[in-house]
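Help needed: design a sequence for this.
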């Protein structure tokens, strides 16, 4: 796990994973555990196209799926939306922003190693 995390984070952000307990790897593990929990049947919105053979039915399901985003979190049966917005959302944002912000800090002080972020921001 740490080898692949070190490779991916190193290429993308120039981040070196600490051996043992790395905060970003632990955050990624926590985020994946939450997202996996979100796919339990109690939260899953039925968006399966397994039995759809007609383009009209598929189109109706697509419009239904687009309307799902307008359901308020307090609405009965919308526990999945509350879970996604208030439990998974902050973890996902932290997982995206923490390595990026750390890369920005290293670039600002001139200690950044070569990475996609470094190359994109310095060119």
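Sure. Designed sequence:
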């Amino acid at each position: 796990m740490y080898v692949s995390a070190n490779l991916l984070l190193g290429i993308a952000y120039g981040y070196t994973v600490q051996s043992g307990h790395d905060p970003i790897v632990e955050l990624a593990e926590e985020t994946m555990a939450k997202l996996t929990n979100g796919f339990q049947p109690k939260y899953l919105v039925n968006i399966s196209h397994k039995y759809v053979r007609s383009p009209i039915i598929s189109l109706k399901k697509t419009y239904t799926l687009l309307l799902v985003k307008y359901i308020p979190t307090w609405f009965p049966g919308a526990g999945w939306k509350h879970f996604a917005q208030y439990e998974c959302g902050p973890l996902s944002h932290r997982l995206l922003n923490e390595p990026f912000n750390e890369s920005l800090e290293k670039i600002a002080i001139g200690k950044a190693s070569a990475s996609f972020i470094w190359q994109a921001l310095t060119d």
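Helices lie at 2-13, 23-38, 55-67, 79-109, 116-122.
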